[in-house]
């Protein structure tokens, strides 16, 4: 498989799918189109034990067919028991993984109201949380978030063992690359760039100093079977290309 074969959107689907590798029987809770495609790809290939949700109250099969009901109480039990891996969006995210989906500007008088804190604090302190950012820019990857919705490594550490016990941020995926928190002090590190993207491009689009370790690799290539599944089974209408530009 050559890098010219896959599109940028397909690399993003692959990178999102990898977030659930090795998770076993957990609830994959993707928020957004590309994470949803990634979760379905992971279940069809290397993570067959994943449970898929429609994002609300139902468990669904690979084709979206309803397989069960997931009432809110049971959903919360899975969250607090660590049996869920959610991939959320981020209006802002900083070097330690603090995420903001609540407001832009000072809390006392914000310039823009967003979704609100929602379940981000409970998610980040109780089960694995990854992030998907379809438009990587300095407006999203910021030095300091305007408000903490999802808890990052520095704030979890400051809160003590009760906050760090189940706190885990496996990865951040953007339209430019893949990131983890293996940098100094558990700060964000550039783990891979998507083919066609340079390390310098990622640094230019990031509002803080991004850690790197030596030569940054490319995001892994999809297999021929994975590409077939994405194009013919999971997303035959090509909706992925509307969310991620080539």
UniProtKB/TrEMBL annotation:
SUPFAM superfamilies, sorted: NagB/RpiA/CoA transferase-like (SSF100950)
Keywords annotated in UniProt: Transferase
Gene Ontology molecular-function annotations: CoA-transferase activity
Record InterPro entries: CoA_trans_fam_I (IPR004165), NagB/RpiA_transferase-like (IPR037171)
Highest taxon listed in the record's lineage: Bacteria
SMART domains documented for this protein: CoA_trans (SM00882)
Pfam families: CoA_trans (PF01144)
Family statement drawn from the similarity comment of this UniProt entry: Belongs to the 3-oxoacid CoA-transferase subunit B family.
Protein name: CoA-transferase
Provenance organism: Streptomyces subrutilus
Lineage of source species: Bacteria, Bacillati, Actinomycetota, Actinomycetes, Kitasatosporales
């Amino acid at each position: 498989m050559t890098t010219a074969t896959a599109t940028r959107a397909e690399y993003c689907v692959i990178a999102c799918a990898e977030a659930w590798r090795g998770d076993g029987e957990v609830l994959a809770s993707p928020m957004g189109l590309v994470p949803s495609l990634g979760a379905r790809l992971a279940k069809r290939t290397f993570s067959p034990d994943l449970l898929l949700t429609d994002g609300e109250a139902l468990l669904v099969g690979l084709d979206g067919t309803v397989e069960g009901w997931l009432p809110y109480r049971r959903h919360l039990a899975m969250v607090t028991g660590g049996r869920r891996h959610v991939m959320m969006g981020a209006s802002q995210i900083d070097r330690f993984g603090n995420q903001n989906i609540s407001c832009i500007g000072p809390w006392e008088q914000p310039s823009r109201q967003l979704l609100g804190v929602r379940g981000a604090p409970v998610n980040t302190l109780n089960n694995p949380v990854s992030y998907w950012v379809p438009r990587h820019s300095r407006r999203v990857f910021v030095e300091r978030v305007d408000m903490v919705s999802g808890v990052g490594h520095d704030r979890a550490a400051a809160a003590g063992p009760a906050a760090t016990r189940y706190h885990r941020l496996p990865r951040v995926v953007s339209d430019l690359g893949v990131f983890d928190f293996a940098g100094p002090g558990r700060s964000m590190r550039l783990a891979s760039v998507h083919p066609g993207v340079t390390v310098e491009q990622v640094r230019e689009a990031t509002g803080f100093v991004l850690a790197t370790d030596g030569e940054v690799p490319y995001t892994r290539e999809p297999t021929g079977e994975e590409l077939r599944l994405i194009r013919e089974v999971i997303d035959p209408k090509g909706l992925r290309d509307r969310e991620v530009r080539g």
